[in-house]
Amino acid sequence: MAPKPTKAEKKQAYDVKLCQLLDEFTQILIVNADNVGSKQLQNIRGGLRGDSVVLMGKNTMMKRSVRMHAEKTGNNAFLNLIPLLVGNVGLIFTKGDLKEVSEEVAKYKVGAPARVGLVAPIDVVVPPGNTGLDPSQTSFFQVLNIPTKINKGTVEIITPVELIKKGDKVGSSEAALLAKLGIRPFSYGLVVLSVYDNGSVFNPEVLDLTEDDLVAKFAIGVSMVTSLSLAISYPTLAAAPHMFVNAYKNVLAVAVATEYSFPEADKVKEFLKDPSKFAVAAVAAPADVSGATPAPAAAAAAAAAEPEEESDDDIGFGLFGDD
């Protein structure tokens, strides 16, 4: 029978394994493992088997291994992991899509009872209805100020009651009542706290962003840069087209108001001298591809371009004839 490895040998083996994973994988999910049992963790490992590896361990050991590996390889990007190793956390090394791996981890949540002293992760509300408990159990409800009535020999809760608020510790009375009612209000599993990707660390909420979200955020950023550039007259790539257009408008306005001219201004001046050309241009514009009728403005312009009817004076029927 082989001798059991010593504590020092276990630490050395763990250090070797963690360093190998750091060299092999560039993506790591830092997860919280509070209230996660060994059987549940085994199921998670099985679900991620193939392109991901789950590694748990003491924070001091992980920090030491990461720090020494960073010094050995000269890759200081690994040091970004050290501030994240706080609390009951583990590491999921993966080569797969980060969002898909995160969603796979979230599938393995298990319902759990409200144990005494546990900090509630969510609000716990006891729904109204028949509890199935006999009248001798009303003392539990009275201690917690839950309104009840006796209906057909059993205790019935009249209105929904917020029994425990998020962040509060579960008391003995609340835990006993929920156990009697068969309510398992909490669910636990590995929760992704941070994401490490090639030296960069970011919030897991980033994984939920779609391409449309990124495009929208980029457009907002470009708009803000453009507005600031125009406000302080500082040229940037985003503001340059607007600056050129505004400058052209200013030069055109000066040319129209003075004798100065250039080819583009000549066209504008020609239209201003003969407004009927505006109407001709509107009529000559191609019809809308959807088959819609011309815009009201174009129709009005076309009507204005029609020759005026001969007046009564032109055919000799004026009110005042020539002497």
From TrEMBL:
Keyword set, alphabetical order: Ribonucleoprotein, Ribosomal protein
Annotated ranges, domain Large ribosomal subunit protein uL10-like insertion: 114-183
GO BP term, example: cytoplasmic translation
Entry annotated with the keyword Ribosomal protein: yes
Domain of life: Eukaryota
UniProt entry tagged with the keyword Transferase: no
GO cellular component: cytosolic large ribosomal subunit
GO molecular function: large ribosomal subunit rRNA binding; structural constituent of ribosome
Ranges annotated as biased composition (Acidic residues): 306-323
Annotated stretches, region: Disordered: 300-323
Complex and partners: P0 forms a pentameric complex by interaction with dimers of P1 and P2.
Family: Belongs to the universal ribosomal protein uL10 family.
Function: Ribosomal protein P0 is the functional equivalent of E.coli protein L10.
Protein name listed in UniProt: 60S acidic ribosomal protein P0
